Amino acid sequence: MKLITAIIQEDKLDEVREALIQADVTRISVSRISGHGRQEDIDIYRGRRIAPNLLPKTRIEIAVNEDFVEQTIDTIIAAARHGDGEIGDGKIFVTPLEECVRIRTGERGRSAI
Ligand SMILES: Nc1ncnc2c1ncn2[C@@H]1O[C@H](COP(=O)(O)OP(=O)(O)OP(=O)(O)O)[C@@H](O)[C@H]1O
Ligand SMILES: [Mg+2]
Fold first, then answer.
1. What CATH code is carried by the domain that includes residue 30?
2. pLDDT in tens, 29-85
C-alpha cells in the first residue's frame, strides 16, 4: 500500500476529485494548507535571503493498493496541471503505507483500503 499526498492549487480541487472518481479512485482526504516551493528569484533583504510568502494550497491524501498507484498519479497530474504546466502547479509525494484498518469491521490491509 502507498499513501499518495498531493499538494495542488485550490482551484483544481474539484477537477481533480472528479477525475479521480472517473478513474475509480473514490476515497480521499482534503486539507487546506499553506506553503511555498522552490524560489526562482530569491528575495534578499539587507543581504539576507528572506522566506517567501506562504500561499494557500490544497493537500489531498489518498491511500491506495499498489495496483492503483500509477493511475492515481497520472490522473492527478492530468487534472491539476494548468495548461501545459505552470510554476506552482504542485507536487505529489508517494510514501510506503504499512497498515490500514477499517474501524467498523476491523479489516486490515488491501481489503480495508
Ligand atoms: N519539497 C517539498 N516539501 C514540502 N512541501 C513542498 C515541497 N515542494 C513543494 N511543496 C509544497 O507544494 C506546494 C507547491 O509546490 P510547487 O508546485 O511550487 O513546487 P516547486 O518545486 O516550486 O515546482 P514549480 O517550479 O513547478 O513551482 C508548495 O507551496 C508547498 O506547499
Ligand atoms: Mg514553485
1. 3.30.70.120
2. 999 999 999 877 777 888 888 888 999 999 999 999 999 999 999 999 999 999 999
Q: Whose CA is nearest to atom 1 of ligand 1?
A: 37
Say if 45 falls within a structural domain: no
69-74: long-range pairs with CB below 8 Å, 24+ = 69/2, 69/4, 69/94, 71/23, 71/25, 72/4, 72/20, 72/23, 72/25, 73/4
Which residue ranges have their beta carbon within 6 Å of ligand 1?
A: 7, 35-38, 55, 57, 87-91
Residues with a beta carbon under 5 angstroms from ion ligand 2: 37, 88
Q: Residue 32: nearest ligand to its CA? A: 1
Evaluate whether residue 46 is within a structural domain.
no
Q: What's the domain count of the chain? A: 1
- Segments forming the whole domain that contains residue 108: 2-36+55-112
Residue 7 CA: nearest ligand 1 atom is 12
Question: Is 106 domain-assigned?
Answer: yes
